[in-house]
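Q: What does the assembled structure look like for these inputs?
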Amino acid sequence: MNDDNRSGRNDTYTLTDNRHGQQVELPVAAGTDGYQVIDIRGLYDRTGLLTYDPGFTSTCSCESDISFIDGKQGILRYRGYDVEDLVARADYMDVCYLLLFGDLPNAEHKQIFRKEITYHTMLHEQIYYFFRGFRRDSHPMAVLCGVVGALSAFYHDALDITSPAHRTLASYRLIAKMPTIAAAAYRFSIGHPPVYPDNSLTFGENVLHMMFSEPTEDYHIDPAMTRALERFLIVHADHEQGTSTSTVRMTGSSGANPFACIAAGVASLWGPAHGGANEAGMVMLDQIGSKDRIPEFLARAKDPNDPFRLMGFGHRVYQSIDPRSRIMRDTCHELLEELGVHDDPYLDLALELERRALEDEYFAEKKLYPNMNFYSGIILRAMGFPRSMFTALFAVARTVGWVAHWNEMIEDPTRKISRPRQLYTGESKRPVKPVQERI
Ligand code: SDX
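A:
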């Protein structure tokens, strides 16, 4: 941790061990904004005690300058810029540059950066053979896990993680190729040929082009779709130490190559409690089916004996509405309006479900509000993306965040391999019996 503790004070926190009447003072450190932390790095050496925090509900795993979340106020900032401002005044390439390099690019830097990323959108031609090895009905996230991990078998020229040039090249390759891989996974699933990226298009336009254009006819890219996709990409770009980002950091702490680290992030994102919630949310809306069944499903969500949860609701950090869900909800309305869709059944049901949940004291008491995934699936469906592609598109957007955190972790001079301990509750020492004596 930076020794220049930003509070400027030498605050400490005293722990008292009532068993032996011992006390230990631990430093309290402050970041730029948000929580203060008790620095427990010396705790074990000084007390022989470990801390216990499964799920890391009260634990900071690292120091970071990239994103800031205030869960109580419902604030998300990338490098100090509110996500709402970035959606209104920047595009996804601006945000990628911001997350990687710490500030927004000027016109010249943006042009150079956009060319760098665009230059790396193609895949090595042999990689397309991988797609043929999957069943056509494979989930795109399964294909993404496999193909992203396989990139390390192709790009040996940028695997020295101690080389800033190698790290930058691998970072650009990952950001640029993720949409090409995701789109190719979709195209193979429908038996259509993969569409190569078009360097004259923007990042978002290329995603639409590679997903939906056909080699046999012209494809018109609808600006309304591009606008909606740009917002989707921006709000999904980073989110401090979410499970998949922490997975990337933990994997990278062993010195694993960047492609393996991002493949680990893809795998972690797939879970329905995390990035898979956008797909699971649409499945849930299908299960609910109509507004008159909402009370039944709200009751199930509140029943401690029922594993059913409202997909797209709740968040480890947000104790108020996720600012991204507001942006996604507004984008839903605007896109459907621009597409001439006036009564989308999913949006109607989602709005009513949100209204009923926000009025319900269970959700208010547990501070369960819609998160980003609640509306994002409705937008992607309106744009024509199949439900199985929703989390893959989340991965496309989040790759820049994963890569930014991976670089920040590698560049941290205090970097150590992440190796948590455990509270052992198994058997104590016991002798091995000969097999004939075992019952
Ligand atoms: C993302 O971390 C990030 O930043 C992630 C993300 C990012 O950008 O990277 O923001 C993206 O993953 C958003 C979250 C998407 N997941 C979902 O929408 C799935 C549904 N939500 C939940 O499974 C849950 O809310 C989590 C996983 C998001 C958060 O879980 P926590 O913080 O571990 O909270 P918890 O499971 O301990 O729940 C606290 C209480 C429990 O009740 P009690 O045991 O206290 O009685 O709230 C209840 C839970 O049962 N609860 C829910 C609920 N979420 C929590 N009850 C009903 N429906 C829900 N959705």
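The chain has a mean pLDDT of 95.
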